[in-house]
Amino acid sequence: MADVNQVVLIGRLTKDAELKYTTNTNLAITRFSIAVNARRKQEDQWVDEASFFDITIFGKQGETLHNYLQKGKQVAVEGQLRQDRWEQDGQMRSRVYVLADNIMLLGGVSNDHTGDRGTSFGQSNDFKQQAPASRPKNGGRSTSPMAPPVDFEDDIPF
């Protein structure tokens, strides 16, 4: 089976996004971080715990999004985990971040009253909001006849 490196997060920006350009190729790099909350019960009370994730977007996509990525804005991010490694003062350092493929702007922090509409910015249309599927009348059971059992002649190799 092939390895999978796929991340989907929904959270809120912890500060406004930063837009920078590389010196040699003038490529746009947009960086921001989001807080993703998880709720769990501790004794008799619900406790919120936040996890923080750094997000990086390259190119025109980042330039376009930069003006919309404001502190408190809720976003959905689809991308891949990446790790940078470098040496600093004789010690190895590393940083894990999400390299975004698709960003969807969700609700929150908007001055033009459009904050509740989702807007998608990305390189593909694979990451879309979908309506929940209706429940089939047969309770989820297959209507096709059962497949015959498979008879393996060889033993499992481990």
TrEMBL record:
Homotetramer. One of its GO terms (cellular component) is nucleoid. This is Single-stranded DNA-binding protein. Residues 120-132 have a biased composition (Polar residues). Plays an important role in DNA replication, recombination and repair. Binds to ssDNA and to an array of partner proteins to recruit them to their sites of action during DNA metabolism. It comes from the Bacteria. Residues 114-158 are annotated as: Disordered. The keyword DNA damage applies. GO terms for molecular function: single-stranded DNA binding.
